[in-house]
Amino acid sequence: MALTHTLKTTFFELLSKDQALFELYEKAGQDGALLYEAETQEVWINPSFQKITGLEASSLDLLTFSGLLHPADLYLWNGLLHGDDRNSSLMLRLKVEQGNWEWFQISQQQNASANQPLLLFFNLLKQSNPEEFPPQYLNASISIPEFDRLLLLEGFVNSNIDAIQVADESGRLVYINKVASRRLEIPQSEVNQYFVKDFEPLFEVAGEWEKHVEEVRRVGKWVGESRNFSVKKRKSVPVEISVTYQKISGKGYLVAVSRDISVRKQREEAYRKENDKLQQILKLTSTGVWEVDVATGLILVDERFEQIRGYENGELSSFDWDKMTKSIHPEDRAMLNLLLNGHLAGDASIFQVEFRVRHKSGNWIWCLSTCKVVQRDERGIAEIVSGTLTDISLLKQMQIELEESITIFRTFAEQIPAYLYMKNDEKIHIYNNPKSAEFLKLSPQEINGKRAIDLFPADVALQLEEQDEQVLKQGVKLTKFIWQYLKNGSEIFLEEYKFPIQLPNGKTVVGGLAFDISETIHLREDLWHTKQQFEKLMASVPGTLYVLKLMADGTFTFPFVSENLRDLVPGLTVEDCQADAMNYFNLLIPEDRSRMISLGKATMENLRPFRQTCMLQLKSGEFRYHRLVSQPEKGEDGSVSWYGILQDVTEEVKLEKEIEMLALVAQKASDLMLICDEKGKVTWGNEASFKVLEQPAATLLGSLPGELLSKGDAKSKDWKSLDLALKARRPFKKILSFQVENGLPYWLEVEATPIYQQEGVFLYSIIICRDVTRLMDKQREFERFLKTTTDQNERLRDFAFITSHNIRSSVANLMGLSDLLIQNPEEKQYVHLMKQVTMKLDTTIRNIADILHVEQRFDPQEMKFINLLEVVNRMVDFCQKEAKMEEKRWEINIASEIQLRVIPAYLESIVYNLFSNALKYGLKDQNSKIILSASRRGEKEIALVVKDDGLGIDLDKFKDRLFKLGSRMHEISTGQGMGLYMIKRQVEAMEGSVHLKSQPNKGAEFTVVFK
């Protein structure tokens, strides 16, 4: 402890606490006074004693004061403090202000309580030779015999701590005190019976007695360590011995004072072990040790100090303070020198500082140095300073990061759009950020110190404190609460997170973070309603909405797929698609899968809309067509997303194929065919229309058909009625004349039929114009022939009537005659012969009448003989793809030799339409099949039968419009009602007939009779 160490209690403050001591001090009137407190080992001196000794402080520790005593008198001082007699007095040498040794007569006074401080009085004794006993003492002892005079020493050297042994120059013991008597186990009265040599070899000093005697005579004293041994127990005790040579009455004596240092040795051993541990800890804590000689500036460092600075062991052996100062960062150098000089001057007992020092590598490292002045000279000037050096670069970095974290937290707490607060274990606010203060319309200082009941309505406050109690008592790590209350008439929703915070003092506080989620709640409600509307909208959308994403690594994923996917692709869930997009793409047929992926990746560059149709096979084995329509969009991460809709267009594709086939048939048909839009204008025409009208497509398309067809016709109003019917979307059927430029007029049978969707939405109108010029010519010829024939028939009828009447009359007469002749037996055989002839004549006349009623039929010249089985096989091949997709199976029972006299194109159209209807409505499951057979009926008729076990047709409901153009009999029908119409017209054109047997859900059986 430094000499400048100052305690709060002064000499007079301590003295005033005990009235008895204070009275003793007042009466003494000595040169100096000292108070000693054994419990704290502290010493207090009065001002006069401070002046004598030159001490600046009025209080100091016992060890520091003992340093002012002459080394040879320390044992006397210890005996005075710790002896049995607390009223004894003695003389001691003490270093005074000028640095000289002066003798002081010390007397002690003790009050009634032994636990009170010890009060000592010091009187200065003036004499010329401080090394001699003072004259006052010698004069008082001169008449006492030689050894008895030494015994006087017992009064001021007898101590319960030190052992005193006195021997003459021959080595005989002449005196031992009580401590020595106990330690050596010999009575004081028998001491002169022993010589020092009697304790050899146990008394180590005795072995070199003569040597020690000469040394003591020469220098006056000898100090060292030895061991005292018990004579009886033969047990050694470590001691510290001080031997002085005293000459009394011309005779010399050696006075040995020995102190038991067993405890000190134990402490030194413990210190050594602790020091070893400390050295190990210093190594583990990256701490080095240094020591500086203040006078020379030389610095001694250990190996760890060098390692911290980046040097090898021994590289800093010639290290001094000047080099150390230069290696310190310039910004830290002045501050370090200032603090160090203050420490050397005694401003503080321990000096600690952080600074930057240059590493061998050239970098600056942060270090912490703790040092202390461990040695001062007699003037109190520092001589040796020792200290430690610790690398705190990592700690400093952590400190910087901690400061940054604190700054970030403060910034976060001030800027976060949430209410941040803390409450103590009594649920009182101790911190609130500005946002919470703004919410409560109070300052943070006004909120701190308040409970919830002071800030919120009672019901809300009770709820909040219950939550706080749950966090504090149950140790919940993180609890989420959502609560609401009315504020200024508005409903406020708060989402609050509460959590316990453990403080270093063991207490727990509640931390809270609350967000005003009122807008979020209202938005969530709006989103919920929007979601309901969106779900309803998605349910009404004829398809599945999706988002397909191509990641940067080339893999596909579905971030979103609407729930109606399961209806579109049975057996495939939304989760399957989101887990792996290939679960959908693997259902595509291989060629379509490769095409779709290639085309999809191609849109990554141009980001153009994507629209493709593909075929896939479901897990059930059924083939379906899907259409993907989407818009690609490129993300910042390099991925591409397609936002689109997935639709099942199987029926549409089939319809397109049917329309394509029908368009092909219509395109090649000899009849003129046109399609008109809702305004009655032409949007399509077949080859015959361009050929008949002799108009280019640019002129034909977009025109009104009545205006085109009325040219050259005086009765153009009939053609205008066609345009009016088209605009009104009404059916129209009439035979009108048409004349091309520089050509003969001919007749057209014009039939217009409006086509509607099942929902009643108008699609278009179809116009079919058949060339009936020959028919009209034959009709006119037939009419002329009919008129002539009618006239002839009238005449023939009259002729036949007359002839018949006459013949019957004649026959009647013949029969009457025959009856008369029968009565004549001789002529009977001739009469029977006459009756038989007459009956045959009557039968012949009846047969002639019947034959006249037989209708003569007209046979078109286009009709040819054709093999029925070849036509059927060709149509099966044409429909093979549909047959495979639907897993249809055919059963054909047609003999290869059956020949029909028909128009070939009509037969192919009839077979195709029958097959198409069977594919659409004729199969219920995978075991269903379509049966096609043909058989002869008599000599002139052949019946073709197509039978299925599908949906069937309700004849009671659709009988009247079964074969009309535009009629549809099923709700799932996507056709336009042209098939059955064409079948009937084509069959009847070839003088055939068509018949149907059917019941709902029990299939249908079409029979076509050819003649």
Write up this protein.
This protein is an alpha+beta fold and 1011 residues long. The chain folds into 8 domains: 1-142, PAS domain (Beta-Lactamase), CATH 3.30.450; 160-260, PAS domain (Beta-Lactamase); 264-397, 2-Layer Sandwich (Beta-Lactamase), CATH 3.30.450.20; 416-522, PAS domain (Beta-Lactamase); 544-648, Beta-Lactamase, CATH 3.30.450.20; 653-771, PAS domain (Beta-Lactamase, 2-Layer Sandwich), CATH 3.30.450.20; 777-852; 864-1010, Histidine kinase-like ATPase, C-terminal domain (Heat Shock Protein 90, 2-Layer Sandwich), CATH 3.30.565.10. 40% of the residues lie in helices and 28% in strands. It has 35 helices and 38 strands. The strands form 8 sheets. Strands 3-2-1-6-5-4 form a 6-stranded antiparallel sheet. Helix 33 (904-921) runs antiparallel to helix 35 (979-989). The longest helix is centred in the last third of the chain and has 50 residues, at 773-822. The chain is rod-shaped and about 230 Å long. The relative contact order is 0.03. The model is unreliable at 1-8, 130-159, 200-207 and 846-858 (pLDDT under 50).
By CATH, the architecture of the largest domain is named 2-Layer Sandwich
**CATH class label of the largest domain:** Alpha Beta
Structural class: alpha+beta
- Runs with pLDDT <50, length 5+? 1-8, 130-159, 200-207, 846-858
